[in-house]
Amino acid sequence: MKIPLGPAAVFTWATASPQLLLRLSIAVAVFTIALKTLAWWITDSVGLLSDAMESLVNLASAVFALVMVTIARRPADADHPYGHHKAEYFSSAFEGLAIIVAALGICWAAVQRLLDPQPLDQLGWGLTLSVISSAVNGALAWAMLQSGSHHRSIALEADARHLITDVWTSAGVVAGVGLVAFTNWQWLDPAVAIGVALNILREGAALMWKSSRGLMDEALEPEVMADIEKTLEQFQHHTIRFDHISSRRSGQRRFVDLHMHLPASWSLGRAAALRGSVEQALMSAVPGLRATIQLLPSDVESHFDDEQDLI
């Protein structure tokens, strides 16, 4: 979707800022909570209650994600020379934990209803409200995925994935409650709620695992490393070589460290000029990359992988 803003400006959801979409996510969460709570209130369906509880998690997660994304945008300072980009991983971990807590709450409510089934009322209105809220969440999730991929924002992606889970949750609830209306089997309502809880429990565990991987300084993606190696090949020569290439991800930031071996007879100015060219080429080839290159004479090998360095 593109919205013209002027003769030379075009707005797309992919380029929309994470802060803008997270503020929109907060507003949508409040809207869907109202719809789903009303749907539960008029039907007394524990399945629809579970759907409303997950939307409460959406709200808390979106607020926390907005705070973390704002912190992640802060520039590097004396205490954080590499920036604040990892703050987004805390947002993803918080969202995963919130989802797990919500799932446990849903299970508790569903088991109580399973032991004491209750008839449901005004299912038509309840299902209609649930479908409307799901459509709104689905549209927002699509926009957030576009922006999350463009900005490489794990916080935005986590919120989008959660919204997608919410859409599937609502679809399952609608199907289950619809079956209750068709069959009059009251036990289907809490059974669907338990199924919903298990599904979002899986999603919460996946989010926490992904955030932990980011906090462990995971290497760059294989396709990004391929771009880096392709760029370095442009500068390779029988007197110039690169080795000990290591990389890591930190939120939106990407880092690569390597050694560049040059003839010992080169002047420092000449070597520094080439290093600057290589760094610029790498950062042009990979957006958001910070390259650090150590200069070494061609006949000198580093002890980067010595066993004592690993102790």
Give structural notes.
This protein is mainly α. The chain is built from 8 helices and 5 strands, in the order ββαααααααββαβ. It has helices spanning 18-43, 46-72, 87-115, 123-151, 154-183, 188-215, 222-233, 268-285, and strands at residues 2-4, 10-12, 241-250, 253-262, 289-297. The strands form 2 sheets. A 3-stranded mixed β-sheet has the order 3-4-5, with helices on one face. A two-stranded antiparallel ribbon has the order 1-2. Helix 5 (154-183) packs antiparallel against helix 6 (188-215).
Flag low-confidence runs: 1-9, 307-311
Q: Helical element count?
A: 8
The helix/strand order is: EEHHHHHHHEEHE
CA-CA gap between termini: 53 Å
Helix content: 55-70%
CATH architecture of the largest domain: Up-down Bundle
> Mind telling me the CATH superfamily name of the largest domain?
Cation efflux protein transmembrane domain
DSSP strand content: 5-15%
- Using the alpha-carbon principal axes, give the shape: elongated
Q: Give the rounded overall mean pLDDT.
A: 76
The class by helix and strand makeup works out as mainly alpha
Number of domains: 2
Give me the CATH fold name of the largest domain.
Alpha-lytic protease prodomain-like
Q: Please tally the β strands and state the result.
A: 5
CATH class of the largest domain: Mainly Alpha
Gyration radius, rounded: 26 Å
- Record the strand order, biggest sheet: 3-4-5
Q: What's the story with the biggest beta sheet?
A: 3 strands, mixed
